[in-house]
Amino acid sequence: QEALLEARFDARIDDGAFIEAKDWMPEHYRRTLVRQISQHAHSEIVGMLPEGNWITRAPTLKRKAILLAKVQDEGGHGLYLYAAAETLGTSRDQMLEALHSGKAKYSSIFNYPTLTWADVGAIGWLVDGAAIMNQVPICRCSYAPYARAMVRICREESFHQRQGFESLLTMMQQGTESQKAMVQDAVDRWWWPSVMMFGPPDDQSPNTAQSMRWGIKRVSNDELRQKFVDAAVEQARVLGVTLPDPALKWNEARQHHDFGAIDWAEFWRVIAGDGPCNRERLAARVKAWEEGAWVREAALAHARKQEERFKE
Ligand code: 3HC
């Protein structure tokens, strides 16, 4: 019976069908989506921290307003994604317990410090640029609630990337020598962690094969990484910054840029919890959760009173 249901499910996926929350799905498909969507949501919420710490120090009112809007967007993306994950039967409390206990992952990139104002532009340009590359294919994910959330999120991500690139371009074109050096320093620190964001090489990725079979992952980690590198090289040229990879060069035969070896030991170390800011990021989230307990209790008490009132 189960095998028959699974075969019918696979046939639906092969026909390009989109799966809704009420449809039958293999337990492993459900678990994969809860894992990926909840970790995606955690990434958005934790991702508010590195940039958030520059809101009070933005150099102009315009930059402050833009940064406020972007950080607020990330919070909204997190809520869309937690809601999408809840359609699979998990709860907000379960997902957040997994984050706070260190069981669940969030994007490695947010475990790096934002040392100068130029980091905020580098995050917009490189990190949101990488996030867009990774998120556009998810708009066609076979799990429809996730795909719908992604369509809305991708619209806002393009604003995130443009504002980051424009802020760096302003510094490179109108800035002082030290501001230009600040931009180059930020690019030097954010380049390789952004390249790692796409996940391990395909031949070291335990989830890719199954996720591609199920139409959850439409493009592999390495293919998206290559697309990102090819686009960034052109953008770096317009900015007038150099990317910190001496092996980066156009390969006519491949019609792509070759690039240097990635330090996968650093990647696995960071996602195992031993990156520059992992403890600080998790402590900030646990503190926010504990300090917000009274808001959740008040909202639940109010909801119970509402229910009582409607029963009378
Ligand atoms: N950071 C942390 N963990 C990562 C990672 C990264 N950059 N890349 C891979 N991993 C983890 C995977 O989660 C998996 O661990 P798990 O089984 O415990 O979850 C393990 O490394 C092996 O990687 P796989 O490639 O086999 O795993 P996936 O098939 O899940 O692919 C992924 C990883 C490409 C990140 C995929 O999960 C994905 O597309 N996720 C949704 C998109 C996402 O999370 N993007 C990054 C968010 S950044 C962002 O959106 C904020 C931006 O708006 C600023």
From TrEMBL:
Domain of life: Bacteria
Membrane-crossing residue ranges in chain numbering: none
GO aspect biological process, one term: phenylacetate catabolic process
Entry's Gene Ontology cellular component terms: cytosol
GO-annotated molecular function: phenylacetyl-CoA 1,2-epoxidase activity
InterPro entries (alphabetical): Aromatic_CoA_ox/epox (IPR052703), Ferritin-like (IPR012347), Ferritin-like_SF (IPR009078), PaaA (IPR011881), PaaA_PaaC (IPR007814)
Descriptive protein name: Ring-1,2-phenylacetyl-CoA epoxidase subunit PaaA
Species in which this protein is naturally found: Pseudacidovorax intermedius
